[in-house]
Amino acid sequence: MRLFLLVCLTMLAFAANSILGRAAIGGGYMDATGFGLWRLVSGALMLALLCSARGLNPWSRERVLRPASLWGGAALTLYMAGFTLAYQDLDAGLGALVLFGVVQISMFLWGALRGNPAAGMQVAGAVLAFLGLAYVVWPADGTGVPLMASLLMAASGLGWGIYSLLGRGARQPLAATAVNFAWSSAMMLPVLLLAGGGTVVSLWGVLLAVLSGAVTSGMGYALWYRVLPQLAPAVAATVQLSVPVIAILAGAVLLGEPVGLRLVFGTAAVLGGIALVVLRAPARKGQAAKQAAR
């Protein structure tokens, strides 16, 4: 039950990132790449403060230069850069579909390669959840999908899939996430310069970016690294399909966005598919015990 609540809290944090980003970028308070950089820097600072409060030192030479830290920073940068650049030309719903579709594929394949393939009913549940998401976000008018923006979002999904898989080996999730955010903040600077970002800045935009970085990204990603070792790759991949649905529902409540029968039916399919994957997941008692002992 505790794991279920932690996963739900993590998915809510991920969805909140979408809401905050839409409010800041869609509202014209900040440009996309500038928002991404503010988000990373504020997340790194908040995580550093939390590490200090808990007596952790994430900045040791061994940890900072560890290959896993460099790869984690690079994967997070790929996710953030692809995400922010793609959404300049890609509809939010289609972007979520491409992003989480690639995340699913990458994590399912990794599980299979590592000797932990998904069961047949888990694959069926994942397909059901994905089709439910597609039904929710696919444009009713059948408009085409911008190729370059879709490729950027696919790269973003690959980055997030790699970042999630790396998190399965994190022994100190808070410290590992702090270092990842610090590396990614530095790696994001060339992206900002090449994309010509950072030109639209406002106080409200900065506040939204800091909230997204310090709370829903920094703390949310650290929590994700904490729960990942207790989840099979198929489960970790599929539960994330709930994030766009949660974001759409929250957008309806907070931003006054419309709700229709497509959302109701699609949400039922997503939740039903996730339930099928979770219920068919093999027990991970050994990993859960190791995580509790850390």
TrEMBL record:
Q: Which InterPro entries match?
A: AA-Vitamin_Transporters (IPR050638), EamA_dom (IPR000620), EmrE-like (IPR037185)
Membrane-spanning parts? 37-56, 68-87, 93-113, 120-138, 144-166, 178-197, 203-224, 231-255, 261-281
**Topology class, membrane:** Multi-pass membrane protein
Q: Where in the cell is it found?
A: Membrane
Q: What is its main location?
A: membrane
Q: What keywords sit in the KW lines? A: Membrane, Transmembrane, Transmembrane helix
Q: Does the keyword Membrane apply?
A: yes
Please report the stretch or stretches of sequence annotated as the EamA domain: 149-278
Q: Which domain of life is it from?
A: Bacteria
Entry-linked PANTHER family: AMINO-ACID METABOLITE EFFLUX PUMP-RELATED, INNER MEMBRANE TRANSPORTER
Protein name per UniProt? DMT family transporter
UniProt source species: Leisingera daeponensis
